[in-house]
UniProtKB/TrEMBL annotation:
InterPro entries: CobW-likC_sf, CobW-like_C, CobW/HypB/UreG_nucleotide-bd, P-loop_NTPase, Zinc-reg_GTPase_activator. Zinc chaperone that directly transfers zinc cofactor to target proteins, thereby activating them. Zinc is transferred from the CXCC motif in the GTPase domain to the zinc binding site in target proteins in a process requiring GTP hydrolysis. SUPFAM superfamilies: Hypothetical protein YjiA, C-terminal domain, P-loop containing nucleoside triphosphate hydrolases. Pfam families: cobW, CobW_C. It comes from Xanthobacter flavus. This is Cobalamin biosynthesis protein CobW. GO terms for molecular function: hydrolase activity; nucleotide binding.
């Protein structure tokens, strides 16, 4: 039976470069008393699942695609997860897909037009891009996916307005407008926005996407490129190579390789010494800051009942006690760095030297 547009579940794709404020926005959406039931799909670029734990009220409705390889698996994985969601009883008022900061939104958006089953039951409502007012101009120069994220947006949150001057803000807004004059744009701090401006936009305009990327709906067989991404694919990278053909040539995904953006992550079950950890991490992001785009960690400190969560964007670090470790929870300290030319051995040695 044919379903009308109205009966389809709206899907919001939340994108934005590393550390721009996507998770902050997601948490806002989930915390507001809207009385709606959302399914959240979190896709992350990293070897260890951390994003999932940072989402408030994470439960079985948070699906993490911890595939370590953004380009090749995201679409197959996404289809599998959405198929699973659609089979669940009760249904959802909406699906929110938070993409990795490095993702080109094109293949994600493509999912909702190419897969028949998904297409029958869902509709892409809007691509919402969170842009970092402080770093976006730099990323537009060196990261094609940052440009694509702006280009694909229906709604743009120009976030972190507190970190720039009024003149800088006007300049970055002008850059955005040069790339995407159509999107609704809101200036925000801590991604604070009325969710009615983000959800149920009915804004995704396929025509405009086709204009930007004429090859958008082309099918082809080029799905053997994942090894270009080297570090991104671990030995347990669960690729589904039989998934729907997707086309790397047309989506600028090679840029991920060309720029050698990679992630390294480490973990230890031995408690850390905060007096060793903080000086170390502060120093490393100062020294390696330009190369470290993003860092994050969930840490267990000696004699501390609370989980400590920290995040960094370049050399700006932010951290806090999150909540007590649960009795049945493994007190594992995990840390992830995403960046260019990362010195894995140096980082690992430094991190492990913080054990109490
Ligand atoms: N100064 C400032 N910091 C902000 C603002 N919004 C978010 N942050 C901080 O920026 C960091 C990154 O925010 P997240 O919401 O985790 O960003 P993200 O886009 O989800 O990051 P990834 O998932 O790593 O790509 C956090 O430490 C936030 O607290 C803002 O408006 N101003």
């Amino acid at each position: 039976m044919a379903e009308t547009q109205a009966e389809k579940i709206p899907v919001t794709v939340l994108t934005g470069y590393l550390g721009a404020g996507k998770t902050t926005l997601l948490n806002r959406i989930l915390s507001q008393p809207h009385g709606k039931k959302f399914a959240v799909i979190v896709n992350e670029f990293g070897e260890i699942g951390i994003d999932n734990d940072l989402v408030v009220g994470a439960d079985e409705e948070v699906f993490e695609m911890n595939n370590g390889c953004i380009c090749c698996t995201v679409r197959g994985d996404l289809i599998r997860i959405i198929d699973g969601l659609l089979r669940r009883k009760g249904g959802f008022d909406g699906i929110i897909v938070e993409t990795t900061g490095l993702a080109d939104p094109a293949p994600v958006a493509q999912t909702f037009f190419v897969d028949e089953e998904v297409q029958a039951k869902t509709k892409l409502d809007a691509v919402v891009t969170v842009a970092d007012a402080k770093w976006l101009s730099d990323r537009l120069k060196d990261a094609p996916e940052a440009k694509n994220q702006v280009a694909f947006a229906d709604v743009i949150l120009l976030n972190k307005t507190d970190l720039v001057t009024g003149a800088e803000l006007d300049a970055v807004e002008a850059r955005i407008r040069g790339i995407n004059p159509y999107a609704k744009l809101y200036r925000t701090q801590k991604s604070e926005i009325d969710i009615a401006k983000v959800l149920n936009q009915g804004a995704f305009d396929l025509e405009r996407v086709l204009e930007l990327e004429p090859a958008f709906l082309e099918e082809d067989e080029h799905h053997h490129h994942h090894h270009e991404h080297g570090e991104a694919c671990g030995p347990d990278c669960g690729h589904d190579h039989h998934d729907h053909g997707h086309d790397h040539h047309h989506h600028g995904l090679k840029a991920v390789h060309d720029e050698e953006i990679q992630s390294v992550s480490f973990s230890t079950d031995k408690p850390l010494d905060p007096d060793k950890f903080f000086p170390w991490v502060q120093n490393i992001v100062q020294v390696e800051g330009p190369n470290i785009l993003r860092s994050k960690g969930i840490l267990s400190f000696k004699d501390d009942p609370d989980r400590f969560v920290f995040q960094g964007v370049h050399m700006i670090l932010d951290g806090d006690h999150q909540r007590p470790w649960k009795d049945d929870e493994k007190r594992l300290s995990r840390i992830v760095f995403i960046g260019r030319q990362l010195k894995r051995d140096l980082l690992e040695e430094g991190f492990l030297a913080c054990v109490a």
